[in-house]
Amino acid sequence: MPNPIVTFYGFKENECVLKPFGNGLINYTGILEYRGHKFILQKINSTIFTDPFLIANNIHLLNIFFKEHFPGYFFVSPVATVQNKEMVYLPDEGYFRLFKFVDGSVTFDTVDNAAIAFEGARQFGMFTKLLSAFNIKKLHITLPDFHNLDLRYKQFEVSLKQGDKDRIKACQPAIEFIKEQKYIVDIFNDIQTNTNFKKRVTHHDTKISNVLFDKNGKGLCVIDLDTVMPGYFISDAGDMLRTYLSPVSEEEKDFSKIQIREDYFQAIVDGYLSEMQDELSNEEKSYFVYAGKFMIYMQAIRFLTDHINNDIYYGAKYEGHNLMRCNNQLVLLKQLLLKEDVLQAKVARYITTAAAIK
Ligand code: GN1
Ligand code: MG
């Protein structure tokens, strides 16, 4: 991608080398080298984020808050252009931003030891906790209804009426299983009117690859702040459970490798609550396992809906890719359901009064 965008940062285009980086599904991410310095260049997918300046504005506000209240917190903010802009729009090219590459940092696509799960969870917990005094009303909604499970289920139902007939016929078992688990949507709807649940600054994409670590496996910071919006803790805790509990990711085709590792569950709870213990109500904590069900189920629905709609959202690298991802997530969900009681017992020590366990 020869890119005139770099000239906005005062770089000489012919001295820049750009290579794709990471496994993000939505935005283009590249690593840019210029005169011995490394940067991350991202092009925002503006079909999905229809107003990327809202993202830039949110990140700007968070940066100001951290600088003022927690100057020691490591926050990766975009590099400003020569004209002091944090995002660049070029009519024929799109929306871009640049970050300094954090030297010595590493990322993981899967979690290979429980200490990494603890650290990842601690980082996301810290992010929300430090922002507890930030007024959530100031945040723009970059993706309306992003984690609205009720709406995701309705979109799935619409796809069953309007989507690809052959694909629908060929994935009946997945459709049936999702319908059978609809109680997960009902619980979400109850949460929305439950006064013991609070909306906080929520990351909404807490997969392990969104945490930067140092070479010794210590968490440095969280990245990918495009979906930071007001939300419930079940979004963040749930996506950690979805992506740290199993040794393999949503891309794994050999489902026999999908497992729920109990010690990793404990590490996520301990890591997240090491920061969030005093923030969450007892009732919220009692939904920790539900959080995993919520996010795995929603991700399965999103992948299946996309498969039925001919892969218009996530795209597909091979025929049936999104159906495979959906089935992978459904196996993960089934495994979680089998261990629900054992896992819930691991949260109990954090619940100080007799809150009902969900
Ligand atoms: C997308 O693009 P990426 O990989 O950061 C998606 C998340 C999903 C994830 C599944 C805006 O995230 O919600 O959990 O794929 N982001 C958006 O891998 O839809
Ligand atoms: Mg993301």
User: What's the CATH H-level homologous superfamily of the largest domain?
Assistant: Aminoglycoside phosphotransferase (APH), C-terminal lobe
Total count of helical runs of at least 4 residues: 11
- Overall pLDDT confidence: 95
Question: Which class do the helix and strand fractions yield?
Answer: alpha+beta
- The domain count comes to 2
> Into which percentage range does the β-strand content fall?
5-15%
Order of helices and strands: EEEHEEHHHHHEEEEHHHHH
Shape: globular
The radius of gyration over CA amounts to: 20 Å
Q: Describe the largest sheet.
A: 5 strands, antiparallel
- Tell me the distance between the termini: 49 Å
CATH hierarchy, class of the largest domain: Alpha Beta
Order of strands across the widest beta sheet? 1-2-3-5-4
Cofactors and ligands: 2-acetamido-2-deoxy-1-O-phosphono-alpha-D-glucopyranose, magnesium ion
CATH architecture grouping of the largest domain: Alpha-Beta Complex
Annotation, overall tally of beta strands = 9
- Stated plainly, the CATH topology of the largest domain is called Aminoglycoside 3'-phosphotransferase, Chain: A, domain 2
Regions with little confidence, pLDDT below 50 for 5+ residues:
none
Residues in helix, %: 40-55%
